[in-house]
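Q: I have 105 residues here and want to know how they pack in 3D. Can you give me a structure?
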Amino acid sequence: MSEVVPQWYADYLAVEQATVFAVLLGANYMNITELVHLACATIASWAKCKTPQEIMQTFGITEDFTEEEIRQVKAENKELEERMKRAKEEEAAAAGGASSASGAN
């Protein structure tokens, strides 16, 4: 953190995770913008350059989805990706048709 903020600020939140989250909540409640930003930067630095699994471990996040829920989300994402791909193809076809029509004039 000291490469992003002055050392005193970095040292101020060099405390346990629970304390940083409590400071964040309190600063947000009291609308202390600079302290909110400092707490968020501290939390972000904990996640920086880590894999999703490392982030989950850092923040004590456990996999709480069932295998069925994971399959459902993957299926929904696949369906969405297919719809987005079709929409892009339709846009490209419409743009191609519009440019050839304008070229005919």
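Q: Anything worth noting?
A: The longest helix spans residues 67-103. Residues 65-105 form one domain.
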